[in-house]
Design brief:
By secondary structure, the chain is an alpha/beta fold. It contains 13 helices and 16 strands. The strands form five sheets. An eight-stranded mixed sheet has the order 6-5-7-1-8-11-4-12, with helices on both faces. A two-stranded antiparallel ribbon has the order 2-3. The longest helix is centred in the last third of the chain and has 25 residues, at 303-327. The chain is globular and about 60 Å long. The two termini are 21 Å apart. The relative contact order is 0.20.
Length: 438
């Protein structure tokens, strides 16, 4: 119970409080933090780096002028009244399994700041350039790893094939940075570095080398410097690697070659598709947070040509991931979320020196796909105006979205963390969730 609850109980005691009052207060406290008493969900976050266009994916405007509506048509889904892009027919067939949020918006229309805001739920405290790698606050994945542990020696946070620019742990320390799997699981030679022993090294010899390292390494450790000390961070990384090498369950989680060929084809025999399959295997093994870093959505030019090629395979992979989780009984306890740092400008433009049009950065409107984790599918939450210029119904913030994810992870977003210097830091400043998803 929180401090406020104790104060309430104290006041109730003055008026003749009883054990019944205590139970009532405890029940009220649980009601004020929905989701904390429910099974904890894991999360697969598909990070569409660059800022995907909402007007060509989940928020098309067919009645708008041609310079706004663009070249793509909307198609019906299996949910009446819900439409998405014609190049995503597989997602259209399973729209009852996910929701579309069309009204999250913010004011950080460059990559560095927008990435930080959507990855952490905290707006940058100083101006951040487009190319900056910024970390003023722990990311969703790092907080998940800090609050929860994966079984079998697995890290609590993975990112493939790289880490988003604001996907790190900040003051939580290197222990809660993502374990990055850079290798391509679509290759026959796929293996994860540091998860398998070299062929010429037996487990007994490996354990002897581990014991020898402990004997030699007697460098004093100063607890107050643990977070920023690179030696301590290195020790934590080495320990994670040792746990992975010695844990058969961890090795099995990466054994994508054991999957049926038909399922691998369904996910898509490409890097993104096979990483999505690895992500499913990781949450199946109990990993609470996996980020699929999916770059290349910054379409300032050649928007329509690029998406005609990209969207069909992206659609296949995401639809298969959601359906596969559902068929295995895992979707109820696994969130699948697809988003980027912002949306794109309503008006199409052609940049100087370019011959093919595109859309530029736009933070006043964006779309987010949200499936699983106990949320109801088939919903369209919020709306933009008739030109896709700005959110006008059920206007939501990045804080609302991040708080929702934390609740479903079993983490109270109203928590206050303390930096190594003792400075209190709110996990999320506004911990109001998106009620339609709770």
């Amino acid at each position: 119970m929180q401090r406020r609850t104790y104060l309430q109980l104290g006041l109730a005691g003055l008026a003749g409080g009883s054990f019944t009052d205590l139970l009532a207060l405890r029940q009220a406290s649980a009601a004020s933090h929905p989701g904390t008493d429910k099974p904890k969900s894991n999360c697969i976050l598909i990070w569409m780096d660059g800022g995907p266009t909402h007007l060509e994916t989940f928020d098309l405007k067919p009645a708008a002028p041609i310079e706004i509506r663009g070249e793509f048509r909307p198609i019906d889904t299996n949910v009446p009244g819900m439409q998405i892009c014609e190049y995503m027919p597989k997602l259209a067939k399973i729209a009852d399994k996910y929701s579309i949020i069309r009204s999250v918006c913010h004011n950080q229309a460059n990559h560095g700041a927008g990435n930080h805001y959507m990855m952490t739920g905290a707006p940058p405290r100083i101006p951040v350039g487009c190319g900056a790698f910024v970390s003023f606050h722990p990311s969703l994945g790092s907080v998940a790893a800090y609050e929860r542990q994966a079984p079998h020696g697995l890290p609590g946070y993975f990112s493939m094939p790289s880490m988003s620019r604001s996907g790190g742990p900040n003051f939580l320390g290197a222990k809660y940075a993502p374990f990055v799997v850079a290798n391509d699981p679509n290759q026959e030679s796929f293996r994860v570095r540091d998860v398998e022993l070299p062929r010429d090294l037996t487990q007994d010899r490996f354990q002897s080398r581990r014991d020898l390292r402990k004997l030699v390494d007697r460098l004093p450790r100063y607890q107050e410097a643990q977070v920023s000390d690179p030696v301590a961070a290195y020790d934590e990384n080495v320990q994670q690697g040792l746990d992975l090498v010695l844990t058969p369950a961890a090795q099995r989680a990466f054994d994508i070659h054991s999957e049926p060929a038909e399922l691998r084809e369904a996910y898509g025999r490409n890097s993104f598709g096979q990483r999505a399959l690895v992500a499913r295997r990781l949450v199946e093994a109990g990993v609470p947070f996996v980020t699929l870093y999916d770059g290349g959505w910054d379409h300032h030019s050649d928007l329509f040509g690029a998406l005609r090629t990209r969207l069909p395979s992206w659609d296949q992979t995401v639809a298969t991931l959601i359906s596969d989780l559902d068929q295995r009984g895992l979707l109820e306890t696994t969130m699948v979320i697809a988003l980027g740092e912002f949306g794109r400008t309503p008006k199409i433009s052609t940049l100087p020196g370019q011959s093919k049009p595109g859309r530029d950065h736009w933070a006043s409107a964006m779309s987010i796909l949200f499936a699983g984790g106990g949320s109801r599918g088939g919903q369209v939450i919020g709306a933009t105006d008739r030109y896709g210029h700005a959110a006008v119904q059920r206007i939501l913030s990045p804080e609302n979205y991040v708080s929702t994810v934390y609740h479903k992870l079993g983490i109270d977003p109203s928590k206050i963390y303390y930096t190594p210097a003792g400075r209190p830091t709110h996990l999320v400043s506004d911990h109001t969730t998106i009620s339609e998803l709770m």
